[in-house]
Protein: Polysaccharide deacetylase family protein
Amino acid sequence: MYNLTFHGVGEPPRVLEPGEAHVWLSEQRFLAVLDAVGRRDDVRLSFDDSFRSDVDVALPALLDRGLTATFFVLAGRLDHPEHLGASDLQKLNDSGMTVASHGLHHRNWRNLDEGGLAEELDQARNLLTEATGKRVTQASVPFGAYDRRVLSRLRAAGYDHVYTSDGGQANARQWLQPRTSITVTDSVSAIAKQPASGEAMRIHLKRFVKRWR
Ligand SMILES: [Zn+2]
Structure:
């Protein structure tokens, strides 16, 4: 199985930071990726950072194609004009999409003490559950930054699945789900051929190191 991650799509609301610009796709590129891989049985789609384009651009495109996706929402930005609000989350739910957590303030969880992790893992999930009226059972890790402590805290918080940005193939039964972020430089045909088998060992090693550091 193969988990793909999108971020913002279409016209950005402001000048983007370099890290954001690298993963902010034009609508045309986004639709080309959807059409190339969206219907594959082994591909799962997700969106991070809860930009407004999730509902304005991505949702109609998904519905047109009969596709579903998981939206990892920043609970601390529900009132921010660039981001999804509570009514948007309802709309996603009503459209058959899954609402999940990307934490509260988009911080690096490795740098937080227990108080900070409680905000990111517990308080964020409570806010999203309140906004959607549905249990939130999945989380994605900001910046893909985790270590052994972050993972054990996520396990203790009771998340069913946790999503990273490690890339490569995923196994649907595993708790930790690697994902691949689609960037502005990936060719659509290369994305369609993923996961590339030559990458497997390198990615496996990288994940091993991150889990145990
Ligand atoms: Zn993020």
